[in-house]
C-alpha cells in the first residue's frame, strides 16, 4: 500500500465556481484523497424524499477530473431539521433526562429504530448512486461516533432496547438478580420491564447495572455502523472506514473495526494536550505547541490494531489552531509535517488534513485549514506539500514489528468508570502510563485486544487494569513463554464486576492473590525499596510466588514467576520505565532510553526520530531541530 496525503473538503460551503481551482490546487499540493459529504444531508435531501444529487455529482466529477480520489462520508451525524419533525423522539437524552436539541450535530439516539431506518435509507441512496463511481474510492460511515458525548442516551428508546438486551443476556430476572447481587439493598426485580436505565438514582447505581448499560450502548453503535456497512457493500467494492477519535472509550472499537476495512482517527495534538492528556502542568507547558509526545503515537498503534490487517489512516489532521479546546494555540513551525511523518512511521496509509479552507461562518470559523478564509495559503499548506514531496522517496506504508504488546480493553474502561474507587483511576490512563514508559525506552509497541489468543509474537506483554481476563487471554497467558506483567487491578473481578473468588488474578501458574486494594490521593505515594514510587493505586498481594520487588515497608510490589508477574501499584513514569527496562533486559529486548521529547519508531526499513521538544536534541550525533524529523535507513 502507498503512503498518501488527503484533505477534508466541503464543496457545499463554497460557490461552485471555486471548485475547479480548489481541486487543481489540491492536486498541485500532492494531495491524493479528498473526503467529502459527511455533513451534507440538508443539501442532498433538503425535503424528505426529494434528492438533489446534481451538485454532488458535479463536485465528485470536478475532483476526479483533477486526478483526486474521493472518500465519501455518509451524512448521518447531521440529520436535517425535517427529520426531527418526523421523529421527535429520536433526539438523544442526557443523564439528567433532558433531550438534546437540534442546532449543532450528532443529535440522534443510537437506539432509535426510526432513525436507524433513516440512516439505512440515506446510506442506500448514496451507495446506489456512487457505489460504482470509480472516483469514489473509499467510504466513511457517519462521523466520529461519540463526539460530544453522544453514545450514552437515556431515552425511552434506549430503555426499551436495554430491557430487550437484558432479557436476551440473562434470560430470567432471577439470573440477572444473581449476576448483579441485587439482594443488596432490596434491588431485586421480578420482570425485565421493571428495569430502568442507571441514571437519576439517589446514590450510585449498582456497578453491574452501569456496566450492562455501557455494554448495551456500545452494541448499539456496532449495530448502527453495521447497517451502513451492509448497505454500502451491496453496491461498492471500495474500502469502508470510520473516523474514530482520541481517548474515546464509550464503545468497543475492536468490535466496530471488525466490520470495517480501514480504521482511521482524527488527530488534534494541541487540542488534546490541553483537553484530555493525563499529564503534569509542567509538561503541558513544555509541549503546548507540539502536543504530547506519546498521545498521538498511542492512538496510531491502537487504530493500527483496530484496522483490518493493520490498515489505518489519519482521517483528520490538525492544521493549525482549532476552535474547540479551552485555549487554542498555533503549532510550532514544523509540527504539521512531524505529525504526518509520525503517523507514517506507525504504518498509516494516508494522513488527511482537516480542512481545505477555513470557513468564515458558523461554529468552526476559528478553526484553521490549509487555506485561510480569504483563499491565501495558511502555514499548513506548505507543510502538506513538503510531506507529499518527501513521500516520493519513501512511498510504501510499513509499520514494522513490535516486541512489546499492551492489552487495551473497552470493557475495563466501563468497569472502572462504573467503579473507579479512586477518582483518578481509569483503564485508559493505566494503559497510557504503561505505553509512555515503553516509549521512553524507544520501543515499538502493539496495542492488542482483550481476547487475543496468541501472544507468541511478543517478548513482553503488559496487561494493566483489565478487570476480568477473557478466556482466550487467560489461556494464552498460562502458556506464554515471554514475560507478561499483569496489574495493578487485573483480573480481580468477575465478568459481572463482583469480587472474583477465590481472589484473583486467576492465571494458571501464578500463585498471587490481591487480598485488598488502596486508592491513593495525589499527595500520597507508596515508596519502593531502593528507589521508585507507586501512586494512585496499591494492591496488597499474598501468595507463594517469588517477590521480585518490595515496598519500603516490606510489602510485595512485584510478585510472580519468570513468565508471569503481577505489579501491585501504579508506578510513576520514571519507576515504570525502570521496571519495564528490567523486564526487557530479562526478555532479551533491546531498549534505548530516549532524551525528553525525542521519540523513535522503527519500520522494517527505517528508523524515524521525531523531536517533540521545543529545543533541538541530539540523536547519535545528529542534531534534530525543535519539531524536526530525522530518518535513517536500517
Ligand atoms: C472533528 C470533527 C470535524 C471537525 C473537527 C474540528 O472532531 O470530525 O468535523 O469538527 O473535529 O477540529
Number of strands: 24
**What name does CATH use for the topology of the domain at 404-587?**
Rossmann fold
Total helical segments: 18
Bound molecules: beta-D-galactopyranose
- The amount of helix comes to 25-40%
Main β-sheet description = 8 strands, parallel, barrel
Mean pLDDT: 98
Distance between the termini: 20 Å
Strand content: 15-25%
User: Compute the gyration radius: what is it?
Assistant: 25 Å
CATH superfamily placement of the domain at 404-587: Class I glutamine amidotransferase (GATase) domain
In CATH, what is the class of the domain at 404-587?
Alpha Beta
Shape: globular
Please tell me the CATH architecture of the domain at 404-587 by its name.
3-Layer(aba) Sandwich
Q: Which structural class fits the helix and strand makeup?
A: alpha/beta
Enumerate the strands of the largest sheet in spatial order, edge to edge or round the barrel. Answer: 1-2-3-4-5-6-7-8
- Give the uncertain stretches in residue-range form: none
Task: Describe what this molecule looks like in 3D.
This protein is of the alpha/beta class. The protein has a domain at 404-587: Rossmann fold. Helix content is 32%, strand content 18%. It is built from 18 helices and 24 strands. The strands form 5 sheets. Strands 1-2-3-4-5-6-7-8 form an 8-stranded parallel barrel, surrounded by 4 helices. Helix 8 packs antiparallel against helix 15. It is globular, with a radius of gyration of 25 Å. It starts with a strand and ends with a strand. The relative contact order is 0.09. The model has no long low-confidence stretch (mean pLDDT 98). The structure holds beta-D-galactopyranose.
